[in-house]
Amino acid sequence: IKDLPNRINLLIKVIEQYNDKMKAVLPDEMAETINKELQNFVATLRDSITHYFSVQNITEVVSSLPGFIISLVVFLVALFLFMLEIPNIHRFIKKHLYPATYREVYKIYNKIGHSIIGMLTATIVLSFITWVFTYFGLLIIGVESAFIISLFIWFVDLLPIIGATGLTIPWAIYAYIIGDPTLGIQLIILSIVLLVQRKILEPKIFGTGVGLTPLPTLISMFIGLKLLGFIGFFIGPLVLIVIKTILESGIIKTDFKI
User: Fold this and answer.
1) What digits encode the pLDDT tens for the residues 66-93?
2) Among the four residues 67, 91, 193, 215, which has the most C-beta atoms within 10 Å?
3) Residue 177 near residue 171 (C-beta atoms within 8 A)
4) From CA 131, how far away is CA 258, in angstroms rounded?
């Protein structure tokens, strides 16, 4: 973070050097306007980084950690107490339902529980695989602080909208612009590897862990992401699991004949 403003200043100098090249193929006024807008954009980006990652903001984030830890502890205690009450909840529900209805409801509950555990396991496995590819890829490229950078890319990869390539591709473009095409090509290759392994493994791992085939899993994640954002990425497959379990239980008849 401390070094980012200096790197952006370097990028501004490189953009200034491209001004003469743009004047050779564009009218002078157009070339100067494009160059000026690019410099303003990069300078704004530099100022934003300097502002958001200032000592004051970092101090505020660190000072909020104790409150977050307390809230997390309270949540975990409440979750533990709720889990202790699950047998009583089962007995209460069983008491007020017919035996056949209770069996079907319990089957749905059990299926959803296993699917949630499978989804969490699949997320952990998939993120770990992405981190391994990223870490060893950066080691092969010879990037300094490969471990820390790979952890940061792994964290960003958890965001379905951005993904790991949301960092590696801009990094490759930056490296190419400042005059390091070798690093740029290497990062592009790493981005392709990360993208391919993600698209191949994600439906299969999620499908195996959640109990769905790859195509419906991918569709439900996409629809959930579009409707509910990041949370929908996980809720989508759960909704599909509930629908699939209800249909398999026979509560809703789907024997359509034409």
Assistant:
1) 888 898 899 999 989 988 988 888 888 8
2) 193
3) no
4) 51
